[in-house]
User: Which sequence fits this backbone?
């Protein structure tokens, strides 16, 4: 619609029509969002990583701590790594988490 009518009755009619279209569009949006959510719920989740590296903040984001995959003290800066990478990081003086103690779980410390 490029031009709106100048008189009040026709403007009210246009507004009423557009409100109805908005309601229809919002219902269609809700249905589509629910459909997408149902599809996402059906997708299998990827398996959890057995080992995690926690990265620091800033340029380069160096590793600051190694965690077992089921550790409760992980955050947003953690990403999954392999067992070999976890062993290498611990051997390269990256500290292990004091709560889950990955060096003990990996048999690197008694």
Assistant:
């Amino acid at each position: 619609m490029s031009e709106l009518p100048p008189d009040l009755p026709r403007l009210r009619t246009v507004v009423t029509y557009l409100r109805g279209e908005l309601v229809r569009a919002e219902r269609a949006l809700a249905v589509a969002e629910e459909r997408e959510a149902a599809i996402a719920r059906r997708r299998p989740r990827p398996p959890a990583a057995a080992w995690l590296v926690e990265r620091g903040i800033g340029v380069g984001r160096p590793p600051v701590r190694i965690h077992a995959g089921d550790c409760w003290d992980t955050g947003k800066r953690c990403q999954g790594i392999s067992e070999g990478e976890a062993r290498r990081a611990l051997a390269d003086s990256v500290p292990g988490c004091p709560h889950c103690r990955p060096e003990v779980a990996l048999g690197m410390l008694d």
Notes: Strands lie at 51-55, 63-68, 78-81. The chain has two domains: 1-43, 51-105. The mean pLDDT is 91.
